[in-house]
Model the fold of this input.
Amino acid sequence: MSFARFTSDANAPRNILLDNVFITEYLPYAPDMCVKVYLYGLYLCSRPEAAENDLERIAESLAISPEDVINIYGYWQELGLVHILKQDPPGVRYLPVRRGMTALQRVKPEKYADFNIQLQEMTTDRMITPREYNEYYNTMEVMGIEPDAMLLTARYCIALKGGALNYAYILTVARNWAAEGVRTAADVEKRLTEYSLAGEGLAEVLKALKSKKQPGYEDYSLYLKWTAKLEFKHEDVLYCAKTLKGRGGLERLDERLNDFYSKRLLSAADMETYINERDALFALAKKVTKILGVYYENLDYVIDTYILDWIKKGFAENTLTFIADFLFKKDVRRLSKMHKTVCELHEKGLTDERAAAEYLERLYPPSAAYAPSKPKNKPFIDKAHAGIAFTDLFNDVNNEDI
Done:
């Protein structure tokens, strides 16, 4: 039986329809992974019979455990967006999105009386509204966050951004940390210690990126991801940052480090070797396309589709540039045609320039239309008689009557 389905009173469209209420009232406050799980499950609801509509498959696709999937759906169940079926295996039924469900819990004020006082003391620039307090209560109740942990989180965010900080930022930090298991005051203190230790390293990385931004919790989280989860050393992260030469910020660096991690390039030496090889391939792709007279905005496509394959087939740069030049002169100016020619040469074992030249000259003989024309009725003057002929001509001119 499929894991995720719509209830009978929920729509079952062919395409995913995301309710505007979800975007405005739920998405801004939900942890990133909670949003991913909800959207992926929503997609699977439109494909109830698909093989991937299964708890184990969902967990594998999102790189989390099946228990995490159920716990995250517990978050959405508390908000009234889904209903978890207690069966073996469990299932989830998506409910219609209704406005105002974020204020689902009305907590008795006395339960958080001390919390309210301490939070207001931190927020000196304005008075906290009942709605804000209710958002804090709901988040703590749903995510299992201790009041002291929430206060420490709020103090950190206010110190980082100032007293006029919007409470939504604090809740976003708290929810993301809670999704990572940071729910007690001790957990928050440990996380802040990690941030403090990462501060000097992150400052060096930002300097290498030529960025003057004040780092936020997102930036610290990225740095800890690289050095703890992906296990890059600080000097390797710093080297990678320098390769960007100030183009792009931490997000661009994150993309590059993720790419290096997927290729198992975990040291600065490995990165440097790869970058140098890639630069050489880029230069060759630029040279070949320029000779052929074609333009590609993204040369990565040319490298991955053609250049790497040609190199693997044993063709050197001089041979490839010769082939491109030869085909251009024969008015063959497409990479796909050059690829066909290169593959044909490879099949015949003709990978060096001389062998390729001899074969291509036979394959593309000079066209008659371009063959030089022979002179018509032009007398041949033998070099041995050239002097005599010139002397006779000179004498005839002198003897001519003027």
Notes: The mean pLDDT is 82. Residues 3 and 55 are 6 Å apart (CA to CA). The first strand starts at residue 4 and ends at 6. The chain has 18 helices and three strands.
